[in-house]
Amino acid sequence: MSEKFLTIDTTGIEPEEGAPAEGRVISGDPIFRTWNAEEAEGGLYAGIWESTPGKWRIEYDEWEFCHILSGVSVITEDGGEARTVKAGDRFVLRPGFRGSWEVLETTRKDYVIRL
Asked: Where is this region: Disordered (predicted)?
């Protein structure tokens, strides 16, 4: 087996459970589950993230690529438009992005984060 090829598979990975940071929830009671499959030197992370419905403030200091696997969410940038994302959508949130993330239907995504 190659040590340079990593399959992103949640089998056998115990998810980390969490929620938005204190004071950031706007509505609902969103619960996060994260299967972090890769943590590389230099602040690179990859895996799968899932959230139950709710809405919270987001503030990105990092760069993140997202690929929505299932569910429906609305991401709204402060002073900008609301964007509905659903299965198959791919996007990047760049450092400095500020706004809200609202999960309408439990949402699961692949992610790659670079600090």
From this structure: 1-24
